[in-house]
Write a structure and sequence with these properties.
8 strands; 107 residues; four-stranded parallel beta sheet
């Protein structure tokens, strides 16, 4: 779906457990995403450069946010990041911390 100018909203159904690398990147009209399935990772550049993306609903099953997964999503102002989610290192795939830069307890 990468680069598709006609996609405005995306709902990932419950039967989907993986969203591939760059799957929805550079979709200029995409404004909202809702993931219902048991997805655990938001891969590298999955929604990169979706400049109109405003809202993302992630399931509690998400544990890893890979580098640049929301790169250049300049209008993204409504996203729920699960409490246990961590940022992953782009070089070795290891955990580098939580998305908030806190001690890991979400506080």
């Amino acid at each position: 779906f990468s680069g598709n100018p006609d996609i405005k909203t995306v709902t990932i159904p419950k039967r989907i457990d993986k969203i591939g690398y760059e799957a929805f990147s550079e979709c200029p009209s995409l404004t909202s995403v809702k993931i219902l399935g048991p997805v655990t990772d938001i891969e590298y550049y999955t929604f990169g450069s979706c400049t109109q993306l405003k809202k993302v609903v992630l399931p509690d099953t998400v544990r890893a946010l890979h580098p640049l997964c929301f790169y250049n999503c300049i209008n993204l102002d409504d996203i729920n990041i699960p409490e246990d989610a961590v940022l992953m290192d782009s070089e070795n795939g290891e955990e580098i911390g939580d998305p908030w830069g806190t001690s890991g307890d979400g506080s």
